[in-house]
Amino acid sequence: METDRNLYDTVDALMQEGKGILAADESDATAGKRLSIAGLLNTLENRRAFRELMLTAPALEDSISGVILFDSTIRDTTSMGLPFADLIAARGIIPGIKVDRGTVPVEKFQGETVTEGLDGLTARLKDYYDLGARFTKWRAAFTVVPKPSDEVILMNATMLARYAAMSQAAGLVPIVEPEVLYEGEHSLEEAQEVTEKVLAWTGDLLERYRVDLRGCILKTSMVLAGKSAEMSSPEDVADATMRTLHIAVPHSLGGVVFLSGGQEAKQATRNMQAIAKLGKEPWRISTSYSRALEEPMLKAWAGKEEHAEDAQNVLVHRARMNGLAQKGIYNESQDL
Ligand code: 13P
User: Fold this and answer.
1) Fewest CB within a 10 Å sphere: which of 116, 137, 144, 209?
2) Tally of structural domains, the chain
3) Has UniProt tagged this entry with the keyword Metal-binding (predicted)?
C-alpha cells in the first residue's frame, strides 16, 4: 500500500497549472455514440483507433496531466502492441481508471439512479494499480427536475465515500464525481439548489468515512441553466458555481475539476475562463472534460486516415485552450 505522500504527489501532478484531465473513460457502449460522430461503427478496432488517435497526439502532455481510461482500454494496446497505460505514463501523463459499473434505476424512486460497483472493488483496484493506474473515478448522476430525493442522494454519497476510502487504501487517488445533469429546461437557480445539496452531502460523507480530503479530487458539474433553457452567461455560471462550491465543499480537498456535461466545446472553455477570472480560491481548480475535448476531434477525423493529423491537432488545440482558460488567460479571438 502506498503512503499518503504518494497520494498527495499524484494529486499535485494531476492538478498542475495550465493542465486538465482528459476523461477518455466512456464505456464500450458510450464509445459507440462517440464513434458515430466520426461516422464509424462501434467495433473493437474502431474503439482502439479512437483511443490511439487521442493518446498519440503530439504534445498532448503539455496541456493534459492525466487520462481516465475504461476497463477495456487499460487492458488494451495500441496497434503496435504497446499497452495504453504504458504509452500514457511514458509521456509523463498519469493513467487513471473509471471503476464504477454505471448507474441503475432505484426501485420505488421513479427516475432516480444509483451507481454500482463496490462488490469486488478491492481486488479490482489492486489489479488496476498493477496495470499502471494511479487514480480512479466514480460517477453518480442526478437530475435537477425532478429533484433528487434525500434517500437517493444519501445512497450515492455513501457509495462515493466508501469507494473513495477503498481507493485511497489501494494507493489510488479517488476522483469523486457527483454529476448534476445539464439536460433539461431547468433554471440556473434550480441547478444551484440541487448541486449545493448533492455536493454538501458528498463532502459530509467523505469526511464521515474518513477519506483523506487532501488526497482526493472532486469532479463536479458547473452550475448553469439546463441545456434546453436560455444559455447562462459565463459570468453567471462562474458566480453561481463558485458560490455553490464555497457553501458546500470542504476547503481541504486536493482539487476540484469540472466536467463538460454536454456543453459545446467553446462554451466549456469560456466558462472555465470566467471561473478562473474570479481569482484565487481555496482549491486548485481545473477541467476534466470528455465530450468538450473529444467531439471536435471526432468531427475533424470523420474516421479517415488522411484526417488523423488534423484531428489530433484539434484535440491538442482544445486542451491548450482549456489550459489557458484554467489560468484565466484564454482569448477567444485566438481560438479557431
Ligand atoms: P463530459 O465532460 O463529457 O461531461 O464527461 C466527463 C465525465 O467524466 C463524465 O463521467
Assistant:
1) 116
2) 1
3) no
